[in-house]
Specification:
- The structure is a single chain.
- Strands 1-2-3 form a 3-stranded antiparallel β-sheet.
- A hairpin with a 5-residue loop joins strand 2 and strand 3.
- The protein is elongated and about 35 Å long.
- It has 1 helix and 3 strands; from the N terminus they run E-E-E-H.
- It has one domain.
- Helices cover about 10% and strands about 25% of the residues.
Amino acid sequence: MGTQLRISREDGSLPCEVCGFPTMHVAKVVADDGTVLGRTLVCTTCQRSKHHPEPPAAGAEAPPDEVAAG
């Protein structure tokens, strides 16, 4: 299953520095076995609007790391 982010409903929220909405939360990073690995800040508004690109198709050529200056 992988690691999970868990946001507490009891803890308050803070204004996000990016979007300005009061939807920044402290989330626990939790392993499969329930061990808390750490904490991170998560904005639920920014996460919803973030575009998650499709993974590249199998056999597709990866883009180059550097682009030649023109």
